[in-house]
Write a structure and sequence with these properties.
It is a single chain. By secondary structure, the protein is mainly alpha-helical. Helix content is 60%, strand content 11%. The chain has a 3-stranded antiparallel β-sheet with strand order 1-3-2. Helix 1 crosses helix 6. The C terminus is likely disordered.
Length: 164
């Protein structure tokens, strides 16, 4: 535990830094595993969702991955251009865009089956530790999602929110 107030500002005492560094290092490990599939790490996450659910809306993908439409839309456009997915308006609700796998995108799943095992071998972390880490990270994501606020609202509720 930090001894003085200033110690809270040491990089080594931050929770965010090891998470940030681990995320960057993990993405770096994924890069050569995903390159033969033609996928970036972010695209791989979208594909994982679609291999599980086959069809999702842009909003559903954004909610699952904690990405806003401004980040997700260009990603999905590139994936459509590369023939992994199709994007089309929902005939029942024109405001919604449906995302589905193409034949090529569906076939890619078989090739991707080796990715998790290869990554696990490279990390050399016992399976029980991996599961414990995954559960802890998932819990942290849930906690952080509860306090996520719109950009520009750093100090808490705005006057408009306080009056509602």
């Amino acid at each position: 535990m930090p001894e003085s107030r200033d110690d809270y500002l040491l990089l080594e005492n931050q929770v965010c830094f090891p998470l940030y560094a681990a995320s960057n290092l993990l993405q770096r490990l994924y890069r050569p595993l995903l390159a033969p599939l033609g996928l970036t790490y972010s695209q791989y996450l979208v594909m994982l969702l679609l291999w599980e659910h086959e069809r999702l809306t842009v909003g559903e993908i954004g909610a699952c991955l904690h990405l806003d439409n401004g980040t997700l839309t260009p990603l999905l456009k590139r994936m459509e251009r590369d023939d992994f997915i199709t994007r089309r308006r929902d005939p029942q609700d024109e405001r919604r865009v449906l995302i589905e796998l193409t034949v090529h995108g569906g076939e890619l799943r078989a090739q991707a089956l080796t990715v998790p095992g290869t990554l696990a071998q490279e990390i050399s972390l016992p399976l029980g530790d991996v599961e414990s880490l995954r559960r802890s990270a998932a819990t942290l994501v849930k906690l952080l999602a509860k306090v996520d606020r719109p950009r520009g609202n750093i100090g808490g509720p705005t006057k408009n929110h306080a009056n509602q």
